[in-house]
Sequence to fold (156 residues):
Amino acid sequence: MGPPHGREATLLPPEAHGGRPDNTAFMCPYCEAVLSNPNAAQCDACLRPLPQKGTPVLRVTFPTGELKISVGQHLVLGRDAGQSPVASTFTQYDNVSRRHSTLWLDPSGTAWVRDEGSTNGTFVNGERLPRGVDAPLRDGDQLRLAADVTGTVQLN
Fold:
């Protein structure tokens, strides 16, 4: 299997960076190109201005790595690479659906999750979300996919 590309590069396993705590890559929220310089003012690929410091960021830390989602970006979580750009993170979990849930951060800085009709459910702080319902996320929430894939939500 080749190296991750596009949105899949936003979640990197710990061993990809020698196990250091900050093991993430950043991507352009518009064209989804991986950014070589996360502090750049504009994307090298699409030339659009990038959100700067002080702009809210949603982080969800899973045992396999950390997701970072910028304002306006939607990210599907699941096992199917055709549906989820971070599928390789979840392929080892048979109980995670191919298209399990979607995360995003709206312009006001509110984080959201929606279960996409998963078989085994999406849970926030132990409470199962109804299918297709947008649920807000707060800093410190526990996001669980199916029975055993839990991530911690950070908003900053």
In short: The domain at 57-155 is CATH 2.60.200.20 (Tumour Suppressor Smad4). The two ends are 33 Å apart (CA to CA).
